[in-house]
Every structure is written in C-alpha cells, then in structure tokens.
Protein 1
Amino acid sequence: MFQTATYWLDTIGVDGFRLDAVLYILEEGDQLQNTASTLQFWADYNAHVKSVNPDALSVGEAWTSTGTILQYVTQDRLDICFEFDLSYATMNAANWGDAGSLSSKADQVFHLYPYLQFATFLTNHDQDRSFTVLGENEDKARVAAGLYLTLPGIPFVYYGEEIGMVGSGDHLNIRSPMQWTGGSNAGFTTGVPWQAINGNYTQYNVAAENGDPGSLLEWYRRLIAARNQSPALRHGTYDPLSSSDEQVLAFVRRDSLQTVLCMANTASGSSGGITLTGPTGVLEPGEYTLVSLLEPGDTLDITVSPAYEIEGLNLGGYEVAVYELSLIHI
C-alpha cells in the first residue's frame, strides 16, 4: 500500500486518497475493527503519504459513531473522516423537521474534532440516495443541501445528488449512470450502459436543470458559490443560536474577516416572528445590516438586543437564508 501510494502521488500526481473501511485493516484475535494495530497503521501510512507530498489529503470512511471516528483523525492518523452521525442528523432535520437534534450534533462535532477535520455529506454510494430518502421532495432536498453546505466541515457531494437522482436497495441502483440529458441513455453513453438508467432521468438531468433558476442543480451552484466566496462558511467557527420555533435551525459562522448568519426552516409552513437568541460574545448588541449571500439585492436590518436576541424574523416554508452581517452602530 505504501508503494502504491507513492506511485499515484509521485508518478501520476493525484492529490490524495479516499480510504475505504479504515476500521478493518489489522485484526487482533477476535477483534475485527478499531484495533491498536489498525490505528498505528494509519499513523504510519499517513506519515508516508505526507513524506511523498505534504499537501496530499487523506479521507477516511469510518462508518461508525462520532466518538470512534475521532480516533482516526487524531494523532496524525488521517486528515479527515466522513461524519456519519452528523449526516443522519442533517437528513432527519430536512425530512422530519428535527432541527434541534441537528443543532446539538453539529455543536458537538465542531468542538470534538481537531478544527474542521471532518467531512460532511448527505448520503453516499452505499446508502439509499438522499432524494429517495427525502421522498423525492425538492423542497426537502433544498433544505438538506442548504444545511450541510453551510455547516462547518468539508462537504462532499455524491454525484447526481445535485440533480435529484434516485436509488435504493441494491448498490447498483444507487450507483447508476449519471443523468446528463433526457435523451437516449440519459446522455451517458452511445453504447449499452453497464447499469440501467434511473426512471426519472427525463425530468431530472443536467441539461434540463442547467440555467433554470428554480432547479435543484442551480440551487447547489448558488450554495457552493456562496461557500467558495465566504471565508466564514469555509473555515469559520460555529455557534448555534436558540430559536423560538423548534423547526428553525440558526447558527453563526465567524472568522476574522466575516460574520455570517445562517437560518433554515425545516417545516413546510412559513414561520413568522422568529426570535433567535445567541450566547454572550457571538453577536454584540447593536444594529446590523444583513446582506444575503444567496439572493442578490436581498438586505435586512436587524437589532441585537442587550439580551442577545434578534426578534421579528420570518422564513418561508423550507426556506434557507444566509446573510453576511455588517454592524451599523452599537
């Protein structure tokens, strides 16, 4: 494995590796996973990778709970691992309006891991596709995307998620060909595809969604553009805000250059007169102008009270709002 890593890094020039089933490298007696030998192996492996290319990225798939995953990104074992418990909480928030559990889980993960050394996602190539899990509800899919692409961590998009591909059960159904067009074989090949095309390809494909401002694809593009252009969303801190509406998730991302307020209504009905309350020191009392990072021209003036409250906020059903804050005066 060390020699293979050297070849791909040095000769081919890849930027890193996604490492499968990292829990199971070396068995010790009847212990199959998370052995001391396995943990030591990844420390040695990652040291070797960094010796070949110090900038190479190691991404581990440790399909287990947060506390166990943590072992694999400490002591220089791996750079990041996929955060499965956080993905479940994100999907549950989008599907069932369980915003409180997501807020708590995101806060726990943010403070447990070495700074931002975890990967966020919705579902992967071994799980039922996110659009299927969300009942093929585009509004829920938008909320799910809005949540994990603004939360801390390093986001990964599973191909086809951004256009509404479906799939469940057999892994082959989850890994079907990418749907590029509504034409023959979804534009994937002029030959015979190795796997049948999803039945929804005529409606959900790149060509149909490209340039349509209401499409799921363009929503993903807006979210990714906002994240790429926002230092606070890329590498800022995370501070959850309590909300008077339990189905509204709100948090603040901050770095030295920028403060961003993120809100998501995980319910189908609109929510009015929302009050958000933050901990001391997150938002100083004063008057602010909010400038949307998702909707050009959308601005809002708010007041943070001496009790660190923001009152009178409104969100439509399944609405996601991301605002940069500018202090007017204290």
Protein 2
Amino acid sequence: MLSDKSKKAIRDVYQNIRDSLPDFAVRRSQNILVAEMAKTLAGNFDKNRRLIIAEAGTGTGKSLAYLIAGIPLATEAKQTLVISTATIALQEQLLHKELPFFRRQSGLKFEFALVKGRQRYCCEQKLAMLAQADDQIELLADLATIPKKRDLQLIKRLFTAYAAGKWKGDIDSWPTQIPDDIWQLVVSDRHSCSKSFSAHRNCPFHKAREALDQCDVLIVNHALLLADLELGGGIILPKPEDCYYVLDEAHHLPRITRDFSAAHASVLGAKAWLQTMAVSMRQLTQSIASSEISDPVTKLLSSINSISKELTKIHSLISANDRQFSDDSWRFADGELPEALEELAANMNHETKRGLSQTAKIVDILAEQLKQDQLPQAKANKLIAEVGFYLQRIENLHQVWNMLIKETKGTPLAKWVEKSGTRQDDHIFAASLIDVD
C-alpha cells in the first residue's frame, strides 16, 4: 500500500517542481496520472500484478508524471527505475533535459544513465592491436579487409584519445562520424570481448556496465529491453525483480517486438559464406595443432557440407517451380510450407542446429585456451572474433529454419520467401511473429 511517507515524498517533489517553474499550470489529468501510477507501483490494486496502462494526450506532462511517481517510490524501495522508449529523440530529451531538471528541482538524490548496446562500444584490445600495428601488418592478415593507411590513422586517433581519457570508447561520443567498416574492426563483441578474459575487463563496454550498478534510473530502448528479457532478465539490465519499468511510447512495442522476433536468410548468400567459413575452419586447424580443436572442426565441416547440399536442393526446388515463385515475394498460407519443402526445411533445421553446436564448442575451446595462456592473446582475440562472427551467422540461419518448421497453436507464424534485391537468382526465406501478445 502507498504509505503516508511515500505520499508525502511525492507531494514534496511535486511542490518543489511547481515552485521552480513560474508558469507552472496545474493539470488535473497529470495529477490523476501521478496518483494512479504511484498506487499501482505501491501495490494498492494488486500486490502481485503491478501493471497500469495509461494513455494521455499531448501536453499532459506524461514524462514528468512518471518521474514524480516513479523515482521517489523506486529510491525508497531500493529498486531501479527502467524507462524504456522507442525513439532516440525521447531518450535524448530524458537524458539531457527532463532528468537533469528533475534532479535539480525535486530535492531527491539519484543517478541516471543511458544504457546502450554492446555494438556502440569499441574493444580496448582490438583498438590497441590495430593502433600499434605499424610494423606488424601480419597481425591484420586474418581480417577480411586489411585497413588502409587513412583508416589506421583514424584508429590511432581513437586510441590516443581513449588512452588519454578524452574519449570513453563509444561511437556516439566521438565528434565526427566513424565509418562503419572501420568501426567493425574495433567494435566489442560478446565472444572475443568477454569480461571473463582478464585483458578485457576494463574494455569500455564492461566499464559502462559496471557504472550502471550505481544508477537509480536507467534509460533504454525497447529493443534492448526485449534483448535482456530474451536472455532471461538481469543479463544486460538489473534483475527484473529489482526494477520498476516504465514503457514510454508503448504503442511502438508490438512492431518492435515483431521485428525483434523475426528472422531471415538467403539461399545462395548462405552457401557463399558457408564456403568461406569452411576455408576458415580448415585454416584454424592448421594454425592450432590440437586434437581438442580438430574434432569439433571435423564435425562442423561435415555439417557445413550437409547444409550446403540442402541449400542446393532448395535452390533447385525454387528454380523448378519458377511459376509458383515468380512474384517478388510469396507467402506460405496459414504458415504451412509446401509438401516438397517440408523435408528440406526439417533437414536444414537439424543440420544448422548441429553446426551451431560445434561452432559454439570451438569458441568455448578457444576462450578456455586463452584463459589458460595456451594461446598468444593477439592470436586468440582474432580467432575468437572470427569464429564468433560465423557463430552469429549460423545461429541466425538456424533460427530462420527452426521458425519455418515450427507449428504454432493459435495464430500461425508469418512465413514467406522473396527474391533477393542484391544477388541475382537468389531468394530469401523469412519468418515472423504475427501475434505478439
């Protein structure tokens, strides 16, 4: 229940805000919103289901209302207030305007931060390796594209600024736009830039995550919130039981949830990167003479071969039925695959699952060898990053075919195939949720 102490804290905050704004206009609708949200969070209506859906028109003062109701109760209950939004504009408004103003005028002491995904941060070790590669260009030989001189110059500037404490290592705080192809050379990834590796514990992403532990209010986007919940909660953000959630711009949530749960992969495009993956895995066994590595690599190569054969059959099936697949996209009615495709899809699901398991095992072995100092750090980092890249690709390929064969109760999945816009004679298979309730 909402205690007298909590009521007083909310009234005091409201009065402080009111006194700080000469032109403050009392809005009955805003006051009702504050009261209903506060009672919901305090468990007045249902202690086990503290949920409220509020719709209010422009000018009501929604963000100020949930700050007035949420922050006093969250700090009193020692909970983290997580504010999830759909747009960058609202995130920036909260970060640079609403929350700084609220902290100055409310009389409350609290810390807040914007939570960004891993891809927004560089890896300190990758950055240092590339920045110091002047006379060691062979270190870059495993990269798909060796950086040009001007690229290395930018990387050196990034490293110098980071080492001097003038840059935090995130792409958003660099004064000019960093080209994507350069950023991908230094970006943090979950496989090679792991906190379990001692050399990576002070990488920008991990330092940013540690700083979140000191925050009372976190600003996130809906996609990041969904990613944390998909991982089980408490992986990216604090544990759900330790949070109060405010989903602002919630009308965007169904679309974002649908897109977050969708997957797609091409036929010929997948065959192409699988061939490159096979070459890379053979080179891996030559680079590391270890029976521990050779066994999963052998099994992975077998799986890659089987997947490629199935993709060839699928491509042949589409070519032989060009009338059926003549349109730019063709949707499978009621989420049911044609009989001729069912067995091929089931085989793809089985083989991609097998390949995914072996690829993950290789990453784990490399990571363990790095921990045990059985591999030089620079070499291990490159290998883990490379295999991790393929792990994400085969993970996506498995997700597509797993969704395509899935039988769902109630509303079926949307399943379709469409012509590739970038590769001639190629097709893309896709699946997505329709009902996200």
Protein 3
Amino acid sequence: MRLVQVREQRFPEWMRSAGGADRSLKAWLDYGTEYLQARQIADAKTDAWLLMEYVANITRSFYYMHMHEPMDENDTEDYLGLLKRRGEHVPVQYLTGEAWFYGYSFRVNQHVLIPRQDTEILVEEALKRIEPGMRVLDLCTGSGCVLLSVLKEASVSGVGTDISQEALLVAELNRKRLGVHAGWIESDLFENVGGTFQMILSNPPYIPSDVIPELDPEVREHEPVLALDGREDGLYFYRRIVDEARSYLCPGGWLCLEIGYDQGEALENMLKSHGYTEVKIIKDLAGNDRVAVGALSGREL
C-alpha cells in the first residue's frame, strides 16, 4: 500500500472542519464506522474494517503497525465509494466479492445467495453419512459452496444443478478456486439430470412469498429472489424434491435438505409419507430447525 496525502477536496467535511490534519488509517476506519452506524448498519465496525482491509489490501497486524500513517489516495476514493454502497445496504460480501464458508473462501456476486454459517450444518450432516466413492447431487447449488465443501472434505464425486446460468458461472469459478472436480448442469431441479446418486443435497428456496418483503434490506433488495422464494407456504420445492428424488436416489441413498426455522415438522411428515426412513430434523446453534435428512427405503442396516 502506498501511503500518501489525500487531496483536501476528497476529505469528508467533518474531518476538514476539525483541521484536516489526521488522514490516517485509524481516522478513516473511525469515519467508516460512524458513517455506517448513522445508516443503521448492524455490524458497522466490522464492515468498516472489512472494506478497508479489502481496498487497502492490509492485514490487522499491518494496520496496528501503521494506523497513524496516512491512507493511500486511490484507496481512500475506493473506500468512500464502498462505504456509500454499504450504507445503501448492499451486503459487504457483494462489495468485496468474497464470502467464507466451512473454512473456504468463495467468490460471490448478485447472482448467488451469500453463504451463511447455518448452512454449514447441512455440510456437517452430509459428511456424517457420506462414504468414499459416493456420487453426490447438489440441487440449487448457487455458488457451489455446499457441494464444493463436501468434495474438499470427502473422497466422492459430485454434480451441481441450478436454474440460473449466471449462478453456475460463479460455481465454476469456485470449483477452480478450490481445486476440485465437479460437474454443473443448468436445470430446474431434476429436469436435465440423468443417472442415480447415493446422496442428494439441497438448500432450495424456502421463504414464503409474502415474507420476502419483511426481510432485511440486504436480503430483499440485493440477494436473488429466485433463490429465496419458496412460493406460497415455502414448501413448494421440498414437495418436488422429496417426491422426484426417489427416481434418482439409489436404494438407501440419503436426502439432506436445509430447511427454514419452523419447517421441521412439515419436512419430517413429508419425508416419512414418501417412504424415507431414518428421518431426522437437526437444529442449528440457536435451537431452530435447520436440516432434514432421510434415507430412501431399502438402506441396508
């Protein structure tokens, strides 16, 4: 990072009025935090740092060693621009193009959902049931974070599907980024899928349509509605997956689904009524329903 003085006209008014002398990394970080707090950004301090880390390409240790030195002029312009967009509730992950999931860095953009920590439970439950050599299908793969994390952790092969071609382009970027082998199919769930699998994963759209307007602006205004909207009751895609998966799962194969916080009972009944056994609803750290699993009848115990 080049450390040079920032031209006066680009400096925030409140800093100029205070004398304009302190144009340090620390002053900019403090400014970023206050700017985002004033715009009701919940994690203002964290986001202000993440944006500074991104534009200036610095680490925390570098910051603490150089916090009283002036910030690079070009970095400052970029920082102000990103602060403005974050203040408009654009998610910080879309601004930096990166999200961390299951210990891995994933590329993200407005065509895919931002990977969330709760979804890591789906990966964990899949890995508990996975066996070497399995063939895994991931429906509604989005960024590919679920499938690619499984492939990084287990000796299995995998295919991901998504109805969005733009999402699959992101998934392919992440496949290359993580250095694993995976195939992608543009498909409305099983529409263009062939063959059978020992495990099917999915984090499908599951938010009821009338709830979407109530979501945080970061979600409702910026994340793809196509990946959120589970139709009238949020269960539309589960009905299709649970029913159609029986034609693609090997006997005894596992179906593992992320679900909404209050959908456990509905999914348990749905899976059992369609002939799945060993049905289990797993809760997240907050105690909410998060993952539903079941094995297709015929599993050898």
Protein 4
Amino acid sequence: MDQRRSVRDFADRPVPRELIETAIRCASTAPSGAHMQPWTFVLIGDPLVKHQIRVAAEAEERQNYEGGRLPPHWREDLAALGTGWQKPFLETVPWIVVVFEQRYGVRADGTRRHHYYVKESVGIACGIFIDALHRMGLATLTHTPSPMGFLRTLLGRPRSERPFILFPIGYPAENCQVPDLQRKELHEIMVEVTASDLARQGAPLHD
C-alpha cells in the first residue's frame, strides 16, 4: 500500500470494464450508517462525455488557479505537486468514475428516506475503491474540481445526489513521474491512551 501514488499522467491503454465493475463491487462492501449504502458510482467511458467533463472541470479549475478563488497559501502548497488547471488526463484515461453521495433516499412513492452519516459512509467506500484499483495494478487520482455541481447536471443525476469525488482510472504512462512524497512515521500519526494516562491528565473515568 505504501507504493500507491496519485497519478496525473496516464496511458491510453484499454482497461477491461470488468475490472472497474469489480472495484465498485468491492467499494460496495463498505459499512454505512443504518446500512443505507448512500452512494452512486457513475461509470463513464464515452469519449464525448469525457471531453465534456474535461471542458467543464478545466473552466472551474482555471478560476481556482488563475481567477483568484484559491487563497495564496493553498496555491503555495499545491505548487510542490506541480498541479495546474489543465486536466488532459480526463480524456486520456479509458474510464472515469464519479462517486455521488446520496443526501437522502427516495422511496417508490416519492417520499424521502433519511440517510445517516453520508459523508463518512461514502468516504469509506471510496477508500476501499482506491485500494481495489491499486491491487489490480491500476492507478487513479482523487480529483475534486471545485465547485463540482456541474457533474450532477452534466451526468443527469437527481437533486438527492451530490458529487463527492471524480476518479480518472487507467494505467500509468510509461514516463509517469510522481512527487517523492514522504509519509508520516507511525509515531507521528498514532497515539495510544491508557487509563493511567487519563488519570494523570485529570480526565474523568467511569465504570
């Protein structure tokens, strides 16, 4: 898993649809609030639709990078990754999967059904999806062109759904390069707490 990287340079090599379907099935095993499974995975392989997504995404991203929507500190942090508003990979990849969060369900009679912990549930499903793709030898990127509302309109999704993440999916290009990022060490991200620790801190303990 430590070898997984987000990729922005993809090959146009075909990817069997069955692999993407399998990854989506894996994602659907995620736990969700009250087992509502509040996610929709929209699969796009049509070149025209991919082109429309690229045009719309680049229009939004250009406003972010050049139109002043991103604050200076955000642009400074992104500079190290070499990203910009151009997103050619949206047309290079054989597949795009856009994950939508279902803010609420709709029953057969048209009434609403409450969904619980939607963002948490969809986030877990997306993590499993990324893992499945990585284990297949495929690459992806958690692309979130902001704002993403255009995806709901372009892809004809209902008002009950909101775009969550866009995943371009394919094989890395032969000359693909990724930043030499270092992940935090275990001691930087994990803290073990014991009852003795809490007692020393004066935290109340209850049986």
